[in-house]
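Much of the work behind modern protein science is quiet bookkeeping, done one molecule at a time. The protein below has been through that process, and both of its lines are reproduced in full.


***
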Amino acid sequence: ALISMAGEKKFHVLQSATEQYIACENAAKQLQDGSDYLTEQVRLYAMTGQREYMDLYFEEAEVTRRRETALESLKEYFDETSVFTALQSAMECSEKLMQTEYYSMRLTAQAQGEEESTWPESIQTTKLADEDEKLSKEEKLQKAQKIVWDDEYQDARTEITRNVTECMNGLIEQTRN
């Protein structure tokens, strides 16, 4: 009976650890997927000028909110741990990267001649540098594309992925322990 009870207790501990691992893995994937989706939409908008991509970007950022949902679900199990901190850092990098994405979308929207009143508020409040205001339509489009493909942008994307990987590695270590 004692062996059975001890085995049952260990089973419940294992089951709980497995559930936490799955929840965290899903959260990390959800944050990475949300960030990747935003990147994809801003790049498509910069390359094609088709408004639907900007709209999809803001639907993800303001309605679907996969990244924020991921953090909220992870917080339940791992608040104030290195696992949560790593995913929180990934989110902060992603949010910072959004400023570059807004700038690219502003350049594209202006080059396309879209009515400013139809732009999302974040794009309306993004101000271009004086030298960028003076660019021609083609130059604005080129700059909009360049800033979402250049090394600085890619480095920020890599930082997000590094933090998500750090989260997963911490989770694996914590689950083993």
Notes: The mean pLDDT is 91. The two ends are 27 Å apart (CA to CA). Residues 88 and 134 are 38 Å apart (CA to CA). The chain is about 85% helix and 0% strand.
